[in-house]
Amino acid sequence: MLEQIRQRKWNLVRKELSDIHESEVANIIDELPEAERTVVFRLLPRQHASSIFEYLEPDVQQEIVKGLGKREVASILNDMSPDDRTAFLEKLPDPILKETLNLLTDDERRVASSLLGYDENSVGRLMTPYYVQAQPDWTVQQVFEHIRRYGKKAETLNVIYVIDERGRLIDDIRIAKCLMSPLETRVEELMDDKFVSLVDTMDKEEAVQIFRQYDRTALPVVTDSGVLVGIVTVDDILDVAEEEATEDIQKFGGLEALDLPYVETPLTTLIRKRAGWLIILFVGEMFTASAMGYFDAEIQKAVVLALFVPLVISSGGNSGSQAATLIIRAMALKELTLSDWWYVMRRELLSGFALGALLGAIGVLRITLWQKLGLFDYSEHWPLVAVTIFFTLVGIVMWGTLSGSMIPFALKRIGIDPATSSAPFVATLVDVTGLVIYFSIAAFILRGTLL
Amino acid sequence: MLEQIRQRKWNLVRKELSDIHESEVANIIDELPEAERTVVFRLLPRQHASSIFEYLEPDVQQEIVKGLGKREVASILNDMSPDDRTAFLEKLPDPILKETLNLLTDDERRVASSLLGYDENSVGRLMTPYYVQAQPDWTVQQVFEHIRRYGKKAETLNVIYVIDERGRLIDDIRIAKCLMSPLETRVEELMDDKFVSLVDTMDKEEAVQIFRQYDRTALPVVTDSGVLVGIVTVDDILDVAEEEATEDIQKFGGLEALDLPYVETPLTTLIRKRAGWLIILFVGEMFTASAMGYFDAEIQKAVVLALFVPLVISSGGNSGSQAATLIIRAMALKELTLSDWWYVMRRELLSGFALGALLGAIGVLRITLWQKLGLFDYSEHWPLVAVTIFFTLVGIVMWGTLSGSMIPFALKRIGIDPATSSAPFVATLVDVTGLVIYFSIAAFILRGTLL
């Protein structure tokens, strides 16, 4: 295919493209060098151009539109499904957006403007207004006639939505039920008055939860007053769920969410998004220098203490990251709510104690072995050093799991996304406090011997 | 509701439960004390029992089944949709599974056994064999008659699947197309020979990618030889995508994936899943003690160097975590492949240099300020100490971003899940090597003055 494009055998290219799925055609165009994208796009048969356009990467879409005539753009945009069109339009700069909207037919412009009127994180932005609706006094026969007339653009025909005379959603009926019933059955006879709906101003992430709970492939969207305004299909929800997970993962990793895929993010943005947290963590970590400066005299007297600094504080950081990861993800999936803090705290303190004692035992073993094998000399008071390390690890790991698990609750309580308490953030906090724990325990145990 | 259950007003409870959605009824039962679950479940009208059962938590399902008679269990299981039933059956211990399968009707048992025959990570486990199929020589009229007869259990009616005389999938047709066509149209006239399908033995995660690419609400599943055996709907794919993200997040956080929700994981399992990585990291981090022991003499001479140890190594760890997070997620979403390593390496080295210089500048500022303000005395050679810190940070941050971004590629190359290179893992690696970088730069710059 690429060979034929390079050789400009356009007839062959056109023929081959018409044989493959729209999504694959879009993939091929995405991968082409810029100069050839518009040329190839223009070869596409008119009736497929819109659906292929829907599958293109956002930046490729923008680029192709620039290379097309107004009439071509108009034809594509009028044929696109409204939810995908919204996703395209919302990325345009304001003046171009206005111009582009004017290319649409009156009907489509009205649809597009109303969808763009919603907040960008709201369910409204995912909506398509093409669905099948019916009224309670219709017969099944009338429903089918209605579908025949208006069903072509509908994203799903699995369910028809029943509305009252004011356009308010009053029920949903599986099309299977209609197909099973005699044609003269009235819609109201099939109703059970049980339905699930989304609200147009609802946050997208809330919609993900509802889809997850009810296992649906599409859900109706209503306004505050219950008027049916569109439907959302689960394929868009899958994308929202992915984006959400990516955002959470990036926050965990201690950087601002990128918004764009890694490969599409410019280098300067990449650096900026990372620098913020990195500087905050660095400034936070500076307190370790202060803390160690405070114990200057102790280190001077017993350099052996300094040797274990990275080991003990990183153990606190690691156990804190683990706890934070578990709790934040469980919160994102609504497995834990604020009221569970006490339950979590008890579990984490117990886990922390067990894990700390385990690491402590390994630490004692290491010091004993190295001393006995003559690999390192921890001074004549090495058993006391070992005891210090043991209690420090128990203390620090418990403190790490406690901070890691409680900070997400605290953040959530004051209305901040718990994912902000990323693993590096918890690790930094535990590093600083861990040093204080370490040197205090050392001062207590080693006073009169090494110190 | 809970009040009425406590007062055992069963008639009221039954009435109220029949007015709400099955998924909400399931939520109520999930939250009840154990003793009351089976009692309340038995109040449910027979025709809803199966669909409510499908929505219950796995452990609640097991418990309720224990409290029901064989005939009740049989009726529920025969009515469940096959994919949800598979999810229930696969959690049963072997002897009970056999007994339970015997409760099914011959037809349903055949379906259930064939689904359970698939590998637990394969698409086959998500499949339902209820879909609408047609043959090319049927008329649209015949298709509708077929739907009327067999469409009741079908999970989706949006698309009908066309098969040849050997049962092989040859096309899919949107039901809308049938509804728009005259009743005497033949199915073959509506075919375009373009369709997307999954293979039954394919990994679930691969199916997520395909759903994401093609924006479908359901996809047909075929065997190796192309025979249509079922469909998968996207609501199940949403669950798979969530599980996948949870697993990745937990691996990032430096612990084994839990398999069960946090609240359902027993404390001992929780500790075991965390202990593994924590011990590995601890043992790895022990090399920091060795590395510092190696520079024992330098620390003795210049305790001031020890003060900055946590600061410089954590900066390497943090920048490494950031890089690893970005790369691993981009790999999971197929934005990056193995062949991109060189592109990533250049970007990350540049980012690392910029970020390292930034942190280095802040470090120099801090030392200068503290010295001038008399907050701490970094010795008469403090400008050299500042220079040491600057170059160390540039070196360590570049090294951190490089390791964080390249380790996922290396792991993927040798066939290990890149998510295994969790943030703590990269941090530990960078801690150890970071110390060597730090003391080497210090030795070079400070020789003859402090050292």
Summary keywords:
homodimer; 451 residues; mainly alpha; MgtE N-terminal fold; CBS-domain; Tetracycline Repressor, domain 2; 3-stranded mixed sheet; 6 strands; 6% strand
Number of strands of chain A: 6
Major sheet size, sense and barrel closure of chain A: 3 strands, mixed
Mean pLDDT, all residues of chain A: 87
Oligomer: homodimer
- The CATH architecture of the largest domain in chain A comes to Orthogonal Bundle
Total separate domains of chain A: 3
- H and E order of chain A: HHHHHHHHHHEHEEHHEHEEHHHHHHHH
The CATH superfamily of the largest domain in chain A is: SLC41 divalent cation transporters, integral membrane domain
Q: Return the structural class of chain A.
A: mainly alpha
Percent of residues in β-strands of chain A: 5-15%
The CATH topology of the largest domain in chain A is what?
Answer: Tetracycline Repressor, domain 2
Major sheet: arrangement of strands of chain A:
1-2-3
Q: Helical segment tally of chain A?
A: 22
Radius of gyration of chain A, CA atoms, in whole angstroms:
31 Å
Pair with the most extensive interface? A-B, 116 and 115 residues
